[in-house]
TrEMBL record:
Keyword Nucleotide-binding: yes
Protein name: DEAD/DEAH box helicase
GO molecular function, one term: ATP binding
Keyword check for Hydrolase: yes
Lineage: Bacteria, Bacillati, Actinomycetota, Actinomycetes, Bifidobacteriales
Organism of derivation: Bifidobacterium dentium
Region (Disordered): 334-366
Family from the record: In the N-terminal section; belongs to the CRISPR-associated nuclease Cas3-HD family. In the central section; belongs to the CRISPR-associated helicase Cas3 family.
Ranges of residues in domain Helicase ATP-binding: 260-463
GO BP, one annotated term: defense response to virus
Length: 514
């Protein structure tokens, strides 16, 4: 049987996609998503559906007998990786360790590309998942493993060569870890887990995207990134603001300083701006110029509260002149985003053309939220952490698109104390391993780096605004007076005079125990 006879799928019209086309198509997508770590991602995608070469799967596909998932086709690719990883006594212990890590990352991604990632260790520390890849299991009839191996010569896989290239990617990951200034060695295992999820994410996205392209009879083309036009719109609309008032002069100075700081290299930074200082637009100004300076792929704006997400999106759309339907440039991904104000059901007042347009737009939005490949994404802290820490393939599919990005965390002081170590590890991994710039925004900066693990790897000069205290003084809106001691009548009269004679009536004075 040649490669043209082995099929990967058949749609409702009877059109078929060959297994060779799907494996190489998904492999190319996984490889091309990002330049770094492309070899191990390519290998995972190239081998993920190799089990479909079995006679059982081909018969199931053509006869339409049985139910979806009734024929196992994921584990065979993991078995091939296991065979390729023949540990040699001639290799050093370090070389064997890297090879073993490569094997486990590939096996995990391939074997579990349907469903979700498992716990690889049980409560007793036993390797329950990888024990399932033992040699005797490969020979079980349900896997048809020998039959699959006999057929894959038609598929041009170069398993040994691609496995060796994958090893070099893992070596590159370990070099980046060792050079990243990571003081806590315990972080290595956390980083390794995130790296495995990252490879898995690239496989999942490539597999589903290639399948969707086949179903829709289209060829995937990566989106072109044009930061210059967004910067032009931003600066044009910023110039329209009133710059005569004192508060707007301060906001303009803060924004301009952020623009200049956009020339900095990739790292983790803090942006301390007082309430009313224009932090939202200032951080966007930094991000746009930093994106074009460092060739970043996207800006992700993470907000802790739903109450301010839509407000932030509105500001972004206005300053960048974006339509509400333009999800390619700006995507909202949170629970209340993208919904209609009225009933979603089709009514007689809505034409079939309008309904078709709505359906098409909803489909675009759904794909955009599944992939996160828009230029600017506004989401919540919950959604961000789900994307990184979930075991579900639907959540993790987005993860790889956080690489080589600018991720801005607004109101970072709201981060729960029990999540600080987790958060520190995640953003440091994103910055040191995946090349993303992190910006921690707040009017009251928490000391996230003051943890016992020392796992927040701030840039050498982390503050984007050096003279922020000056701005805090000028934008001070309240004056707290601890008037807790007993007052006589003359002293009380003086306080009342101060309150009622104060020239700015919108100020509020609160006194305790006078």
């Amino acid at each position: 049987m040649n490669s043209k006879q082995l099929l990967a799928r058949k749609d409702a019209t009877g059109a078929v996609q060959t297994l060779r086309d799907h494996l190489h198509g998904a492999g190319k997508l996984a490889r091309d998503f990002e330049e770094e770590f492309s070899a191990i991602s390519y290998t995972a995608a190239l081998l993920h559906d190799i089990g479909k070469a079995s006679e059982d799967f081909q018969e199931y596909l053509l006869s339409a007998k049985g139910h979806r998932g009734s024929v196992i086709h994921a584990w065979q690719g993991a078995f091939l990786v296991d065979d390729a990883c023949a540990l040699s006594s001639e290799k050093s212990a370090a070389e064997q360790a890297v090879q073993e890590i490569t094997r486990e990352i590939l096996e995990l991604a391939i074997a579990k590309h349907h469903g979700e990632l498992p716990d690889c260790l049980d409560v007793d520390g036993l390797s329950t998942f990888f024990d399932g890849l033992a040699t005797d299991r490969k020979n079980e009839i349900r896997f048809s493993y020998q039959e699959v191996k006999d057929r894959i010569s038609y598929l041009d896989l170069d398993i040994a060569g691609n496995y060796d290239k994958s090893i070099r990617d893992v070596e590159h990951f370990m070099q980046k870890f060792n050079m990243g200034g990571i003081a806590n060695s315990d972080s290595f295992y956390f980083y390794l887990g995130l790296f495995a999820k990252y490879v898995y994410s690239r496989l999942i996205d490539a597999d589903r995207l290639d399948a969707a392209c086949f179903e829709e009879r289209r060829t995937y083309r990566s989106k072109s990134i044009d930061w210059s036009s967004l910067i032009d719109r931003f600066e044009k609309n910023i110039r329209k603001f009133d710059h005569t008032s004192e508060i707007n002069k301060i906001r303009n100075r803060i924004s301009e300083q952020c623009r200049l700081e956009g020339k900095r290299s990739t790292g983790i930074y803090r942006l301390a701006v007082p309430t009313g200082g224009g932090k939202t637009l200032a951080s966007l100004n930094f991000a746009l110029h930093h994106a074009i300076e460092t060739n970043k792929r996207r800006i992700i704006y993470v907000i802790p509260y739903l109450s301010i997400t839509s407000q932030t999106v509105k500001v972004f759309r206005e300053i960048l002149e974006l339509d509400e339907d333009d999800t390619e440039t700006l995507l909202e991904h949170y629970s209340s985003a993208g919904g209609r104000k009225d009933d979603d059901t089709f009514t007689n007042t809505q034409s079939e053309f309008d309904q078709e347009e709505d359906d098409e737009q909803n489909a675009k939005r759904k794909l955009a939220t599944e992939r996160w490949d828009s230029q600017i994404i506004v989401t919540t802290m919950v959604r961000f952490l789900e994307t990184v820490m979930s075991s579900k393939s639907g959540d993790l599919r987005r993860f790889h698109n956080m690489a080589d990005s600018i991720i801005i965390f607004d109101e970072i002081q709201s981060l729960p104390t029990n999540a600080i170590n987790l958060f520190n590890e995640v953003v440091s991994f994103l910055s040191k391993i995946l090349g993303s710039t992190i910006v921690l925004c707040s009017a009251t900066q928490p000391l996230l780096e003051r943890t016992s693990r020392k796992n927040l790897l701030l840039a050498d000069c982390p503050n984007l605004i050096d003279d922020s205290q000056e701005y805090f003084e000028k934008l001070r809106r309240t004056c707290v007076v601890a008037a807790t001691e007993m007052k006589n009548c003359d002293e009380l009269a003086e306080i009342l005079y101060l309150i009622f004679d104060y020239p700015h009536k919108h100020h509020t004075f609160k006194h305790f125990e006078v």
